[in-house]
Amino acid sequence: MTTTARIVHASVLGNLRLAAGTAGLTRVEFTDAPDAAPTAENSCALEYLLAAVRQIDAYLAGTRREFTVPLDRSALSAFDRDVLSALEAGTPYGHTTTYGALARTLGRGPADARKVGGALARNPLLLLIPCHRVLGADGALTGYAGGLPAKRALLDLESAELRLPLAV
Questions:
Q1: Which residues of the chain have pLDDT under 70?
Q2: CA atoms of 161 and 96, how far apart (whole Å)
Q3: Is 44 one of the annotated active-site residues of the chain?
Q4: What Gene3D superfamilies does this protein map onto (predicted)?
Q5: Among the listed residues 28, 35, 50, the one whose alpha carbon sits nearest the alpha carbon of residue 150
Q6: 67 Cβ partners below 8 Å, 6+ apart?
Q7: How far is residue 117's CA from residue 81's CA, in Å, rounded to a whole number?
Q8: Nearest to 100 by CA among 82, 85, 83
């Protein structure tokens, strides 16, 4: 995996650092870094980056439910890929799951819920791979790389009843 395009994009939830390579988007993460225009060594990677920014903005505005920009998962371990794929396949927009339920989906026992949580904590593609849709066994909000207020805002965005405004 080679990153050939980068940007820091101001979103309604805070600044996001995005990176892409020739195979697709490689990173979406929250950052305290200021806005930064895209830098690119490759036009294909730049297109992925710009498409991701447009899709993220549309998602946060409530006009998009799915992302279509290619994702490059080549740097992930096989276990992390399996967990993130199970999350994507089994937890659509507007739904939630638990760490234990994801572990069961993978044919693992309840004791592996922590391992699933670790894989989600390493998710390099926040928002696009929706780890914000995973809750504790009792339905409680648990850790999120963007912070619990961002997780709550994302869940509210996807719910039938918005409880928190997304405007900053």
A1: 1, 160-168
A2: 15
A3: no
A4: Methylated DNA-protein cysteine methyltransferase domain, Winged helix-like DNA-binding domain superfamily/Winged helix DNA-binding domain
A5: 28
A6: 52, 55, 56, 59, 127, 128
A7: 13
A8: 83
Per-residue pLDDT reduced to its tens digit, 80-122? 999 999 999 999 999 999 999 999 999 998 889 999 999 999 9
pLDDT at residue 164, rounded to an integer: 46
Q: Contact at 8 Å (CB) between 150 and 30?
A: yes
Entry field: residues in the chain? 168
State whether residue 65 is helix, strand or coil.
coil
Among the listed residues 131, 150, 155, 157, the single catalytic one is 131
Question: Pairing mode, if any, of strands 5-11 and 134-135?
Answer: unpaired
**Cα–Cα distance for residue pair 44/27, rounded to 1 Å:** 16
Is residue 147 within 8 A of residue 31, CB to CB? The reply is no
Q: What pLDDT sits at residue 161?
A: 63
- Element (DSSP H or E) covering residue 148: helix 148-158
SS percent in the chain: helix, strand, coil, step 5:
40, 20, 40
Predicted confidence at residue 143, as pLDDT, reads 87
| pTM of the complete model | 0.90
